[in-house]
Amino acid sequence: MISRLQDQVASTTRSLFSHGPRPLERTLDFAGDPGLLGPDSVSWRVIGDVAAFIGGIRALLIQTAHPEVVAGVEQHSSYRTDPLGRLTRTSFYVTATTYGALPEVEEAVGLVRGVHRWVHGRSERGRPYSAADPALAAWVHNVLTESFLAAYQHFGPTPLSTEEADRFVREQARIGALLDAAPLPESAATLSEWVSTHPATAASKAQAEVIAFLRRPPVPLGPGLGYRLLVGAALPTIPTSLLQTMGLKVSDSRARLGRAALAALRWALGSSPSWHLALVRAGAPVPRGLFRQPLPVS
Q1: 159 three-class SS
Q2: How confident is the model over 221-255, as pLDDT tens digits?
Q3: Would residue 278 count as lying in a domain?
Q4: Domain count, the chain
Q5: 8-22, 50-64, 270-284: lowest mean pLDDT where?
Q6: Measured between alpha carbons, how far is 70 from 54 in angstroms, rounded to an integer?
Q7: What residue numbers bound the domain in which 252 lies?
Q8: Cα(122)–Cα(242) distance, integer angstroms
Q9: Angle, nearest 10°, between helix axes 221-234 and 252-269?
C-alpha cells in the first residue's frame, strides 16, 4: 500500500511536467558525455533534490519584481492559456542544461535564443525591453540560481558549505553565459546581495496580475493544494524588501505546512530521475537509496 501511494504521488507529479517535449529523451545516445557540469558538480545534487520545486516557485515570484521582465511575461507568454505547457518548457530547459549531454545543452539554449528574438516591447513604466538584453537575461538567470540555492539551503537534506555554495553559483554562471547574461556573480554572498538590492525592482500592475496567477494556478485540486503549500514554504526565504515590492506576507503556519509537504514529496519521489539518467549516461557511480522512480527512458 505504501509503495502504491508513493507511485501515485510520483505519477501525479510527473503528469504536471508532461505537457511538452521530454528532456533527455536521446541522452543515452551520448554515452560517456559528462555534459556541461558533470557528475561531480554541486548543481546535479542541488537541482536533483525536491527542494528545487520550491526554488522554481520562488524564482517565478521574485522575477516579477523587475517591471521589464514581468512585462515580457505578461505580453508574450502563454502562461494564462497554457500554464502546464509553460511549466514543462521551463523544466525542460533547466533539466537539459543541467543534466544533458553537450549536444542537448546546445539544443536547449538554441531553442531559448530563438524564442527570445521575438520577446521585446515596452513596460508600463515606459522602458523598452528585450529578452535578449544581457541585463534582463541576468535578472532571470541569477534569480533562478539564487532561488535554487536558497531552497536547498533551507529545505535540502544537508546544507551546502560556503565553498560548495560558491561552486554551485559558478557552475550556474556557465549556463547563464550561454545566453549572454551579464553580470553573473560568482559567489553565493555576492549573488544574494545582487538579487536583494537590485536597483531596477519596482511594483507594477503586471507583477500583481502574474503573482495572483502564480499563487492559484488552474491545476487539479490535489496538485493545486500541494503547490499552494510549497508557495507558503517559499515565501519566508524571500528577502523582506522583495516581499514588500511584491505585496506578499509570510504565514508561519503555511510555511510549516509547506515544509511538511516537501518532506512528503521527498519520501514519495526520491531524487530526480534525470539526475539518475545523467549518471548512467556519464558512466558515473549511482549512489544507493537516492532514486526510487524509474529511469525516464522508453
Answers
A1: coil
A2: 677 777 888 889 999 999 999 999 999 999 888 88
A3: yes
A4: 1
A5: 8-22
A6: 20
A7: 2-19+31-282
A8: 23
A9: 120
